[in-house]
Amino acid sequence: MYRIIYSPAAKRDLKRLPADVQDHVHDALEEIADDPYVHVKKLKTPYNSPIFAYRVGKYRAIMSIHDFELIILVLKVGDRKNIYRKF
Fold it and tell me: Per-10-residue mean pLDDT for the chain, 87 residues long?
């Protein structure tokens, strides 16, 4: 089972969301901790880094998955309209 760690930016992003959405995103991320690759989509990035997106309703969680340490590092959380502009 993977551990979920939130970056400081992801924590800020979550605090800006309504409380019910925060809970929904957190619960959804906990559900994929057993096998995250089944649920995520790999993003194409210019620096060829393994960055993934996970869909939670109209919100997205952008994350990096580290298999050797069994860690899911959540980098950003936000509305699907704006979240992809930085990646």
Answer: 96 95 95 93 82 94 94 94 78
**CA dist., res. 36 & res. 1, Å (int):** 9
The token pair that represents 12 in the structure block? 């800020």
pTM: 0.89
Spatial strand order of the sheet with 41-42 comes to 3-6, 71-79, 59-66, 51-56, 41-42
To 10 degrees, the CA torsion angle through 31, 34, 35, 36?
50
Burial class of residue 57 in the structure, from the number of CB atoms within 10 Å of its CB (0-12 exposed, 13-18 middle, 19+ buried): exposed
